[in-house]
Write a structure and sequence with these properties.
single chain, about 300 residues, alpha+beta, Jelly Rolls, Arc Repressor Mutant, subunit A, three-stranded mixed beta sheet, 12 helices, elongated, transcription, Homeodomain-like_sf, DNA-binding, Helix-turn-helix domain-containing protein
Length: about 300
């Protein structure tokens, strides 16, 4: 079995980094207090957000080492494994916000936490902060830490969770900014997505693999499915699923216009397992059945 260091409780992660535990379900961890250590694969059973303070190569994605500049946020969801095992030593720097899902029970954030897609982004899809944004994030951490240092009362949980939600909302805004400022990179991905679909429908993949899925396309473009989905939505106003469906319709119209293939053959060429599913999908989208579209188009 692969050697993975598992943290079930936030207190264990605090002890690992030489930090005091002030609350069993939430902590702002000063990574600078941690001892020098070797690279390890780690799994956390709670949400964790790293704010890297200086360049360091302690986080990896696959076999790649990423030197995150000062002011980079990396988001980890419960059960996720990050890092690589190795003999290389490093001194952790920066801060981490750790909070357990149980902290959110009975709060509005419990219903919204899944809407923050960046918790399922890959490590190499980190959020790179400007200096002003970094100060805002540190201020959010400071407010949470302040509440942890007070005697717990009936307001404590609400204030802590509200500040975590405020922090996450800022992160959502900053990711929106990053999608815009990295527009040249995003457009390159959009072009690759379009070319991927073009090549897919020219190949035998529709007959062997079926209709292309969002996860297949994201994987081919070396992106996590959620990051890919959010990026395409920002660029086009459509989800990747809608983009694929539009491509399917355009391909179907082209084949119906330019060939004598039967409706069944068109359906199979596009990756539909059952022709009736294709006919239903086409009519729902276009407003005409494939037969009606072909007949009217030829007149």
């Amino acid at each position: 079995m692969e050697d993975i260091l598992i943290f079930d409780h936030i207190s264990e992660y605090n002890a690992f980094n030489n930090n005091e535990t002030m609350h069993p379900l939430v902590s702002v961890v000063d990574l600078g207090k941690a001892d020098v250590r070797s690279l390890r694969k780690m799994r956390y059973d709670f949400y964790l957000v790293f704010l890297k303070k200086v360049k360091c190569g302690d986080l990896r994605y696959g076999l790649h080492n990423y030197d995150y500049e000062e002011g980079t946020l990396i988001f980890v969801s419960p059960g996720q494994v990050i890092g690589e095992n190795g003999t290389e030593e490093y001194k952790p720097q920066g801060f981490a916000l750790a909070f357990h899902p149980e902290l959110l029970n009975g709060t509005n954030l419990a219903k919204k936490i899944k809407d923050y897609h960046f918790f399922s982004y890959a490590v190499n899809e980190a959020l790179h902060l400007s200096e002003k944004e970094r100060k805002i994030i540190l201020d959010c951490f400071s407010k949470i830490e302040y509440e942890l240092e007070q005697n717990m009362d009936k307001h404590s949980k609400q204030l802590i969770v509200s500040n975590i939600e405020l922090f996450l909302n800022y992160c959502e805004r900053f990711y929106d900014r990053q999608f815009i400022t990295r527009d040249h990179v995003n457009k390159g991905i959009l072009l690759k997505f379009e070319e991927l679909l073009n090549q897919y429908f020219k190949s035998e993949f529709p007959q062997t693999l079926g209709i292309p899925t969002v996860s297949y396309c994201a994987d081919q473009l070396h992106l996590s499915a959620n990051y890919f989905g959010d990026l395409i939505k920002k660029e086009t106003g459509k989800s990747p699923q809608e983009y694929i469906q539009n491509k399917l319709i355009n391909e179907a119209k082209s084949i119906l216009f330019d060939s004598e293939k039967s409706i069944n053959e068109v359906a199979y060429d596009l990756g539909f397992k059952y022709p009736q599913h294709f006919s239903r999908f086409f009519k729902k989208t276009v407003g005409q059945s494939p037969v009606e579209f072909r007949t009217l188009g030829s007149n």
